Amino acid sequence: MQNRTIVIDPVTRIEGHAKITIDIDKSDKVKDAKIHVTQYRGFEKFCEGRMYTEMPALTARTCGICPVSHVISATKAIDEILGVTPPKAGTNIRKIVNLAQLLQSHTLNFYHLSSPDFIYGFDAPKEDRNIFKMMQTHPEMARDGINLRAFGQKIIEDLAGKRIHPTGIIPGGAAHKIDESTKEAILEQIPAMLKIAQSALEFFRDNLHKFQEEIDYLGAFPSLFMALTNKEGTLEHYDGKLCFMDSEGNILKDRIEPRDYKEFIGETVEEDSYLKSPYYKPLGYPQGMYRVGALARLNIAKTCGTPLADKELKKFKALGAGKPVLNTFYYHYARLIEMVYALEKIEELLKSDETMSANVRSTSTVSYDKGVGCSEAPRGTLFHEYHVTKDGIITAVNLIIATGNNNLAMNAGVKQVAQKFVDTKNITDGALNRVEAVIRCFDPCLSCSTHALGIVSSKIEIRDHNKKIIRVIERS
Amino acid sequence: MKKIRLGTIWLDGCSGCHMSFLDMDERLIEIAEYVDVVYSPYVDMKEFPESVDLTIVEGALSTDHDLRIIKKIRENSKLILALGDCAITGNVSAMKNLYGSEAVLQRGYFELADLNQKYPSKVVPTLLESVIPLHEAVKVDYFLPGCPTPADAIYEMLKSLIEGTEIKIHELTRFGK
Ligand code: SF4
């Protein structure tokens, strides 16, 4: 046999577009596998020359799934440039909107994209593995997912003006205070939403025993973890400092100021992907591979700080028996716990009198020539760095996007799952679905990650070492 | 009643328009009774199928691959709906035209990389010299503006197609909304 490459294109039920190649060597073994992100939009260039005031609205357009994260990091970077601290109510409104987005985004991954694999199995006919089929066979569950996601989106709309690309989070704080009636309406719905999130958790736990192989081989390996944490070590999505932990649970570096991120994070270019690969600089490339997002956050956090989520966190931590949880499959579990946390935390923040204050915004003018904004997006730590003239014209922008941080780990995961499940003599749809499923565990947001997305194509192409197509298989 | 065969695809956009599609919320269940989603990021179909009744396209065209797929979509679809400002005008996706692909790549992969500075050139598609809206490459049947197009507008549009009625688009959405 000669060397061959299997191409899965496009990867589906993820947020964005990518393809996967699986290289097979002469002895019919999977030698390597990779994810390729296939388009590039160039925000870091075309933001140059624009006014800093445009940045929240403009950078929100890197992503329709987590626009709030971009708006939050953008406004935090601008807060630094202006030298302002938002009033408590402004900060709390931002936090609530950020959590509402976390909730809707995690819901989207679990119900709309991933759960068909849990309901029907990884080997189910491909026509069945989607939310539309779920609406027919599991209407209650589909409706739950739709309602929980809608709840998150509605909070964003009510507090920040618009569900997608909201305009109400602005430099210095927030544009509007929260109305009493809005607050009451949200609080009233929280118990029902908590019930949904908890039933999702139960469903997941009840079905875990069916997926032992996936747990063991969909990206189970040592890596570093990075997340924001606060002084107390509780789960944090808005404030806090950066922390790196190794796969044994040792803290490599803690309390890093986000503005110093460049001392610790380097980026390398892969010639076959528009997505760059960040790495932990002290360990270099590729040893400095780290993971971000829900799994990393829960590995690093000592507690969630809310009662129901903390109960779940204990069970989650038990999986690692005192060490970090290394199985990528458990990203799903971690996200479900964060959904419960988000609901509890939104309730807590809304019930605080400080949140309801009319003093939601501080104002100032350009005071510094540089600002770094950092927050935990649903998929992990997000950095925006802006440089400005004294008139507020942007001269340079750097963005490190949550998903990008996971690029090295996604590739390690794709390779592991391909080597385990792909029988090169009998390539099945179920095996290829598992290769895609490891990507789904990371919940990558590829529109963000290259500040872009795109691509499409077809079937499985088998190519020779010159990349010439020698065989094409329809995936069915 | 025969179901409408519906395709949806995102090209060079931010996926916000697709998110707005999901923002129809419970109305999705109602719509699903009348349509079969035969191709979409939300379903596992790798090949764009033949004889699609309606394809909803988000995003502008920015790579050679986008160009190829939009031509295939045109051949295989009775109707194409350009969803959102990127598909209709290029919008934010076309802002890199201000500098050109070369300068944009230079910034991302040379100035802002610490290792291996080079242009990604293997396996990935090639960027077009400039980003263009759909109608510059193919005939488009419907335009539904907005950034993103509001969910209500998407719902009314789909309902009108299913029921064969007319809607006043300008009452539901506009550019930049
Ligand atoms: S029109 Fe707006 S929401 Fe739609 S893809 Fe373009 S930037 Fe995103």
Automatic annotation (TrEMBL), chain A:
GO terms for molecular function: ferredoxin hydrogenase activity; nickel cation binding. The keyword Nuclease does not apply. Ni(2+) binds at residues 63, 66, 445. Fe cation binds at residues 66, 448. It holds the Pfam family NiFeSe_Hases. Its cofactor is Ni(2+); Fe cation. Keywords: Iron, Magnesium, Metal-binding, Nickel, Oxidoreductase. Belongs to the [NiFe]/[NiFeSe] hydrogenase large subunit family. This is NADP oxidoreductase.
Automatic annotation (TrEMBL), chain B:
The keyword 4Fe-4S does not apply. SUPFAM superfamilies: HydA/Nqo6-like. Keywords: Oxidoreductase. This is NADH:ubiquinone oxidoreductase-like 20kDa subunit domain-containing protein. PANTHER family: COENZYME F420-REDUCING HYDROGENASE, GAMMA SUBUNIT, HYDROGENASE SMALL SUBUNIT. Pfam families: Oxidored_q6 (PF01058). GO terms for molecular function: iron-sulfur cluster binding; oxidoreductase activity. It comes from Sulfurimonas hongkongensis. Residues 14-160 form the NADH:ubiquinone oxidoreductase-like 20kDa subunit domain. It comes from the Bacteria.
